[in-house]
Specification:
The strands form three sheets. The protein has an eight-stranded mixed beta sheet with strand order 1-5-6-11-10-9-7-8. Strands 13-12-14-15-16 form a five-stranded mixed beta sheet. Helix content is about 40%, strand content about 20%. The chain is elongated, with a radius of gyration of 28 Å. It contains 16 helices and 16 strands. With about 450 residues, it is α+β, with helices and mostly antiparallel strands.
């Protein structure tokens, strides 16, 4: 039988053209991360099952891919006491933050705190695949751990602004909130013990709307009176300062709520010292970020003139390492969704031509003698830092030029017997069709532009 060749749902193959664009995204992000003093690390594809479970809330835990210890060892008979942990000790990482916390605890004696790291690796979630949502995707994370200073939050907001400005995005909003403000809201509506249920529901507001959020809160046991008090709170509007002033009055009896407001004001003060290049910074009371480990400031970035939802997010976590035996080590981090950024840059046609090019100059192969001569010319062009290649076979000219067009190679160099004698080579601009006789130095100068 003919084999059914396919790949798992929610995964993708990437062609060279797509990989060039993805590498443009990764490299742009990496340059900005390093400019702000962050260093790279990597962690394993799989973690111990217990490392991941219980860190993402009930919904997140359901999306963790479990790995069987070896083959098909599911119980052959019904066993009421059977647990997943009986057949697996490992799982694919769900994000990069929890593995980072585990890394910090394991390497605490080698690390100088505050520790600033970035990590660009794939993660896996057993989610329902849809546009912009995959089961295997890359995260580009940057975190600083071992410092409670809110200057770190300011730095991360500026990283959002700088990276997305580099991508030529001109209309995007950095949404800012604080989990302490959400805890304050839970207090003043009389449901402080339901903070996790409230944040998980509010986090879906943009996706399912107010009515569905209310229905979910009812199923979680919130009283109708509490829900009625909640709605006007999440509808607060105005400037950032106006919203904070309203919350100031509402939180007169909530210490944790007042602490959240104080932190937001301080972050905004730090950000305003140098301002932002492009981004709009907006306090959004409905921003919740569903992950349970966030304890302070939380962030999300939305491109306003694109269809995609949020493309970046993050927040402050005060004691994530405590679950691994290293308490009281506060951290804050953000993540860039590379796949979502890709979709936005494609939609808005913002990928530069250089992100789609691999080879800049192709040398035509006229035969054995010419090819040998071309090898020394090719070496000099590559030595100048230019991506170049010699077509490997002495094929017909049309075939070689078709190859150059297919790879979007902007320049083709023709070196026949006449050119070998004169030292002046024929350079063809594949976009304009123009040809000129030039020396090697001029070829290099033109290709470097």
């Amino acid at each position: 039988m003919k084999p059914n060749i396919s790949i798992p749902k929610g995964t993708r193959d990437f062609s060279p053209e797509i990989m060039n664009k993805r590498n443009y995204i990764f490299n742009t992000i990496k340059v900005v991360f390093e400019k702000y003093g962050f260093l790279p690390i990597e962690t394993p594809t799989m973690e111990n099952f217990d490392t991941l479970m219980g860190k993402y809330g009930e919904e997140g835990d359901r999306l963790i891919f479990k790995i069987l210890d070896s083959g098909d060892i599911l119980p052959k008979t019904k066993n009421e006491n059977f647990k997943i942990s009986d057949i697996t000790e490992k799982a694919l990482r769900y994000d990069l933050t929890v593995p980072f916390a585990r890394y910090v605890v394991m390497h605490k004696n080698e690390i100088h705190f505050p520790f600033k790291r970035y990590q660009i690796q794939p993660v896996w979630r057993a989610d329902r695949p849809q546009k912009g949502r995959f089961r295997e995707f890359y995260q580009c994370d940057v975190d600083v751990i071992g410092s409670t200073s809110l200057m770190n939050e300011s730095d991360l907001i500026h990283i959002f602004d700088e990276v997305l400005t580099e991508f030529k995005l001109s209309d995007f909003t950095i949404k800012l909130n604080n989990r302490k403000i959400l805890s304050g809201i839970a207090e003043i509506i009389g449901e402080p013990d339901k903070i996790i249920d409230i944040t998980v529901a509010i986090d879906k507001l943009d996706k399912i709307g107010v009515d569905k959020v209310k229905e979910e809160l009812v199923t979680k046991g919130l009283s109708q009176q509490a829900i009625d008090k909640l709605q006007p709170l999440i509808n607060i509007s105005g400037t950032n300062e106006e919203k904070l002033n309203v919350l100031d009055q509402l939180f007169s009896q909530s210490e944790i709520g007042k602490k959240g407001i104080e932190e937001i004001r301080k972050i905004v003060e730090y950000v305003n010292i140098n301002g932002l290049q492009t981004a709009k910074l907006e306090l959004d009371i409905t921003l919740a970020r569903g992950l349970n480990y966030y304890t302070g400031a939380i962030f999300e970035v939305k491109v306003n003139n694109a269809q995609m939802g949020s493309i970046c997010g993050g927040g402050r976590y005060d004691d994530l390492t405590g679950i691994f035996g290293l308490p009281n080590l506060s951290g804050v981090g953000i993540s860039f969704g590379a796949d979502r950024i890709y979709e936005v840059l494609e939609e808005l046609k913002l990928f530069p031509n250089t992100a789609q090019q691999s080879t800049k100059v192709m040398l035509v192969n006229f035969g054995e003698a010419e090819a040998k001569y071309c090898l020394s010319v090719l070496h000099q062009i590559r030595k100048a830092g230019i991506k170049a290649e010699l077509y490997p076979d002495a094929a017909k000219m049309k075939k070689q030029l078709d190859y150059a067009n297919a790879k979007q190679i902007p320049y083709v160099l023709l070196i026949g017997s006449e050119e070998m004698q004169s030292g002046k080579f024929t350079l063809k601009n594949m976009l304009s069709g123009e040809q000129s006789k030039v020396g090697l130095e001029e070829i290099i100068e033109t290709a470097l532009k």
